[in-house]
Specification:
3 strands; DNA-binding; mainly alpha; homodimer; 169 residues
Chain lengths: 169, 169
DNA sequence: ATCATATACTTAGCGTAGCTAACTAACTAT
DNA sequence: ATAGTTAGTTAGCTACGCTAAGTATATGAT
């Protein structure tokens, strides 16, 4: 088989630049990417324990404890003790958390939707197929979409809270 | 025009999952994503000043100063004073820095290349076109590919990184 | 030549985010 | 009861992002 490295390189690069572009829509919520990502898990997946969240987000338990503390302080989630096991704590999104997450997601995807609006039907076709290919490769069956989302990876950079971020150029 | 939000959502999600998958190949180098990204700028673009690097990476000057300190400590780059302007400092990749970056990039993209090797010619076609569309949207003209690369964005393990911010005047 | 301003970078200090190690509390099993 | 396991927290370290302020050098006007 022939070498697909050059294509892989372009796909890789395209994915990175695409996400950087979209990420610029995010900063307005005032919630950091890590918190948004964890929040999305409970908004789309329902209440979760700290351990489940840590596992879903692939971070350590102490890290998730701290993320939850921050989200709770900001009123995005609330803790609920389990009825039968006093060790476990359920994290549930508050209406505010739900709203903030959905709005941020809409804002983020809206930019891309605008970009895509300019495409011809044939281009939409190509992009749709390509997306299916990538979904197949990553083993996703049309997941929740944002659920997994905002990991910094691009992680983007971290975060400072509160103040509005400035944009470039 | 019809609403492209559903497609945008899928493309967004696909890009995120794709990068998370690729990122898992990275952890071996021992270099953080932010440093790798900055390193890629000097490896592929030649010597740069701190200011140019900060601008290229969309981080503040102090942040870049610290990233450079870390890379220098690890032997990935070296500082060189400018011949005509004593204020500027040129950052150049060392052979070690060059090697580490290229190896990491190869390793990262190799995973995707293997995935793509299974595709049919028609699928490669679709993916190629889709990639061109994304490149057009993000305003890239087949850039160096990695140059911009490893921005955390998703940041998976390891560290999360940053976001686009502007420098002070 | 002097002085004010601008530029390039560094230092200092703050908040967030990741980790491991070690701790408390509570459940389970013997 | 006692030992072991599990859920979560606390403590301490590194790294990354920022702004504000400081130092050194360059430049332009007087």
């Amino acid at each position: 088989m022939d070498d697909r490295t050059p294509l892989a390189d372009r796909v890789h690069s395209a994915a990175i630049h695409l996400l950087r572009r979209l990420r610029k829509q995010d900063d307005t919520s005032g919630v950091t990417p890590s918190r948004l990502s964890a929040l999305s898990v409970v908004v789309f997946g329902g209440p979760k324990t700290i351990g489940q969240l840590a596992s879903a987000e692939q971070v350590s338990a102490p890290t998730m404890t701290r993320l939850v503390v921050g989200m709770q302080r900001d009123g995005l989630v609330k803790r609920e003790r389990d009825a039968t096991d006093a060790r476990v704590i359920w994290i549930r999104a508050t209406p505010k958390g739900d709203r903030i997450l959905r709005e941020g997601r809409r804002r983020r995807v809206a930019q891309l939707a605008r970009d895509l609006a300019e495409l011809s039907p044939a281009e939409v076709e190509h992009l749709t197929h390509a997306t299916e290919i990538i979904e197949r490769i990553t083993g996703r069956a049309r997941s929740n979409s944002l659920g997994a989302t905002l990991r910094p990876e691009d992680a983007a950079r971290g975060a400072s809270r509160g103040r509005a971020r400035r944009r470039t150029r």
